[in-house]
Specification:
Elements lengths: L25 E5 L4 H12 L3 E6 L2 H11 L6 E5 L5 H15 L4 E4 L14 H29 L3 E6 L13 H21 L4 E8 L16 H13 L9 H12 L10 E4 L7
Parallel strand pairs: 1-2, 1-4, 2-3, 4-5, 5-6, 6-7
Helix pairs in contact: 1-7, 3-4, 4-5
The chain binds NADP nicotinamide-adenine-dinucleotide phosphate (NAP).
Length: 276
C-alpha cells in the first residue's frame, strides 16, 4: 500500500520541524498496524516520538515496530482490541511502563463494513459502534485519566470521517452513525478536558487508499468494488485518492505545539470531496 508521495527535504528533517516537532512525545496509536494508523505511527516515529503500535493484529503491529525501529522514536507493538475497556486500560499502562508517560493518543482503529439498514442485524450495528465509537470513548477515558494524573496536559486526535458530516455511499449507515458520534464526542470531551490542558480534536479523511479500502465491499465482487472506487475517485475534485501520509501530516500538526490553542475542531482532509 502506497504510504507516501515524494516529499520535500524539510519534511524528512525533524530538526527543521520547529513548532511542529513531536520529538520526545510518548504516543499511543490505535489500529497502527495498517493504513492510516501506520502512516501516523511512521511520521510520529520519524519526528522522534515513542509510539505504542496498538492493533488487533499483533503480527502486523510487530512488523511495523521492526520497520519503525530504524527511525528516531522507540516503537513498541501490542495487541489491543479497542472494543475492550480492559485492553484500553492495559494499553495506557503499557505506555507508562515503556515510556514513562502518555502525551498523545491517536484514536484511529475503525472498521467500515457495509450493510443496508433494512438488512442489518443488531450484532452488525453493535460491532461497528463497539469499535468505532465505544472503543474510541473508552480509550479516550483511559488516556484522559492518565493525562489528568500527569498534570501537564496532553493531546487526543480522533480519526473521524467525512461521513461524520455527510454520507458518502449507501450501506454505510452504521459507520456514519459511529463517525457522527465521534465528532460529537470530540467536541464534548474537548470541553471537559480543556481545564486540564488536554486538547481533543478530530480529522475527517476523505477517500484514502489503505488495506481496508482495497478490500471488496460486502456483497460486491472485486471488479464491482474497483468500479465503485473509480467512480468515487472521479467525484474527488483533486482527482486522486489520498494516501495515509496525507492524514499523518495533519495528525502530526495536531499533536505538536503548533496546535496548542485548538480544541474540539474537525479538520477535513479530503481533496475537496465535501465540496463536490
Ligand atoms: P485499515 O486499513 O483497515 O486499518 C485499520 C487497522 O485497525 C487494521 O490493522 C485493523 O486490523 C485494526 N483494527 C480493526 N479493529 C480493531 C480493534 N477492534 N482494535 C484495534 N485495532 C483494530 O483502515 P484505514 O482505512 O486505515 O482506516 C483507519 C481509520 O480511518 C478508521 O477509523 C476509518 O474509519 C478512518 N477513515 C478511513 C478512510 C479511508 O478512506 N481509508 C476514510 C475516512 C475515515 P484488521 O485489519 O486485522 O482488522
Amino acid at each position: 500500500m502506497a504510504q507516501r508521495p515524494p516529499t520535500s527535504e524539510i519534511e524528512t528533517r525533524p530538526d527543521l520541524w520547529g513548532p511542529f516537532s513531536v520529538a520526545g512525545r510518548n504516543a499511543l496509536v490505535t489500529g497502527a498496524a495498517k493504513g492510516i494508523g501506520r502512516g501516523i505511527a511512521d511520521r510520529l516515529a520519524e519526528g522522534g516520538a515513542n509510539v505504542l503500535i496498538a492493533d488487533i493484529d499483533l503480527a502486523a503491529a510487530q512488523h511495523v515496530a521492526e520497520h519503525l525501529a530504524q527511525d528516531e522514536g522507540r516503537p513498541v507493538a501490542m495487541r489491543v482490541d479497542v472494543s475492550s475497556e480492559a485492553d484500553c486500560e492495559a494499553a495506557v499502562q503499557r505506555c507508562i511502563e515503556e515510556f514513562g508517560s502518555l502525551d498523545l493518543l491517536v484514536n484511529n482503529a475503525g472498521i467500515f463494513p457495509s450493510s443496508p439498514v433494512l438488512e442489518m442485524s443488531p450484532e452488525f450495528f453493535d460491532r461497528v459502534l463497539g469499535i468505532n465509537l465505544r472503543g474510541l470513548v473508552f480509550m479516550s477515558k483511559a488516556a484522559g485519566l492518565q493525562m489528568v494524573r500527569q498534570g501537564r496536559g496532553g493531546k487526543i486526535v480522533n480519526i473521524a470521517s467525512i461521513d461524520s458530516v455527510h454520507p458518502s455511499l449507501p450501506g454505510l449507515a452504521a459507520y456514519d452513525a459511529s463517525k457522527g458520534g465521534v465528532l460529537s464526542f470530540t467536541k464534548n470531551f474537548a470541553l471537559e478536558m480543556a481545564p486540564h490542558h488536554v486538547t481533543v480534536n478530530a480529522i475527517a479523511p476523505g477517500g484514502i487508499a489503505t488495506e481496508g479500502t482495497s478490500q471488496p465491499v460486502t456483497g460486491l465482487t472485486k471488479e464491482q468494488t474497483d468500479a465503485m472506487m473509480a467512480a468515487f475517485t472521479q467525484r474527488i475534485p483533486m482527482k486522486r485518492m489520498g494516501v495515509p501520509d496525507d492524514i499523518a501530516k495533519v495528525a502530526v500538526f495536531l499533536a505538536s505545539s503548533a496546535a496548542d490553542y485548538m480544541t474540539g475542531v474537525l479538520i477535513v482532509v479530503d481533496g475537496g470531496m465535501l465540496l463536490s
